[in-house]
UniProtKB/TrEMBL annotation:
Designated name of the protein: Ketoreductase domain-containing protein
Originating species: Porites lobata
Keywords noted in UniProt: Oxidoreductase
Keyword Oxidoreductase: yes
Source organism superkingdom: Eukaryota
Ketoreductase domain: residues covered: 64-244
């Protein structure tokens, strides 16, 4: 009841501000009231966020048509399996046909519905053609999970032009092309969810992974700017979730080592844990998911401390040489 009264009071206050504005009187008073109103709204937002953190509301994913890229192995495979368990109809993409067939078999054996498509995410035209086939064969995607990712593991001057292009094609540009394929129908229906598997490397630079970090920063920027744009045009019913995990033991960053990895959230995550948290974030309409939890603190810390202090901490953790022992996967295919 008290919250309702507060909301009525805020509406009345806003009306008073509008009157002051149009009469051209009391500009300073109007500004004070406007700032007061803004403060109340921010306070309410904090309260609502705290409530959702304590008792997160879960939406049902049953019946959603979910598309997962890079689904033939690793976390993409596990996310696909968990979404199938939640009652989603699955569309899975990858360049690895053999892996796709294996995952599709797992989902079908468990009683789920799945449609697999071989797709090279480096090719914009192939993305368009495959998306068109999905719409014709299965229907409009309502849950898009951009999971596929690659890493060269080379220092900046050692990366070839082709390796840099490939990294951005898969880790960043493919997100643009898939979103542009499926967002229009989401906007029309006022219903949809877009997920980007970015990285903690999209929040903090890492020596020896300049191309990878840059592509992940781009993915994070895309999701944040798109969220703001959808809000500015008054779009409702479409959720965006950006996922920034630390190292996941899928083999993608095999050999990379930090000193005291758990100290500031650079701990190694199991694929099972990461996939579970991603699906939880989707169900909870979580805007940003950073894993492990300690990484929230470390990413915030770098915006507070002086640059030199941040560099000293990263060196202490061994981040400056962590990529020197990089091995990675034997095949640099668009999987994660």
């Amino acid at each position: 009841m008290s919250l309702v009264c507060l909301l009525y009071a805020l509406v009345a206050l806003q009306g008073f501000i509008v009157i002051l504005h149009f009469t051209g009187k009391g500009y300073i008073i109007s500004l004070i009231f406007e700032l007061t109103f803004l403060s109340f709204r921010v306070l309410i937002s904090f309260s609502q966020s705290a409530f959702r953190w304590v008792l997160p509301p879960r939406k049902s994913l049953h019946g959603e048509l979910a598309l997962v890229t890079g689904a033939a192995s690793g976390i993409g495979r596990l996310i696909s399996l968990r979404l199938a368990e939640k009652g989603c109809r699955l569309v899975i993409w990858d360049v690895n046909q053999e892996g796709l067939d294996a995952v599709a078999k797992e989902i079908k054996t468990a009683g789920g519905e799945v449609h697999s498509y071989k797709c090279n995410l480096r090719d914009k035209n192939e993305i368009h053609e495959t998306a068109t086939r999905v719409k014709e064969d299965v229907g409009e995607v309502s849950l898009l999970v951009n999971n596929a990712g690659i890493v060269s593991g080379k220092k900046f001057m050692d990366c070839t032009d082709e390796e840099i292009s490939a990294t951005f094609d898969v880790n960043s540009l493919a997100h643009f092309w898939t979103i542009r394929e499926f967002l229009p129908n989401m906007l029309h229906r006022k219903h949809g969810h877009i997920v980007s598997l970015a990285s903690i490397a999209g929040k903090t630079g890492l020596a020896g992974a300049v191309d990878y970090c840059s592509s992940k920063f781009a993915a994070v920027g895309l999701m944040e700017a798109l969220r703001q744009e959808l809000s500015s045009i008054g779009s409702t019913g479409i959720q965006l979730t950006t996922v920034c995990p630390s190292l996941i033991t899928t083999g993608m960053f095999e050999g990379v080592k930090f000193r005291f990895p758990h100290l500031l959230g650079f701990g190694v995550l199991t694929p099972e844990y990461a996939a579970s948290k991603v699906v939880d974030a989707i169900e909870n309409n979580q805007t940003i998911l950073i894993m492990p939890r300690g990484a929230y603190f470390s990413t915030a810390l770098q915006h507070i401390l002086p640059v030199d202090a941040t560099d000293l901490l990263l060196k202490f953790l061994g981040a400056d040489v962590a990529m020197n022992s990089f091995i990675g996967r034997q095949r640099n295919t668009p999987k994660m």
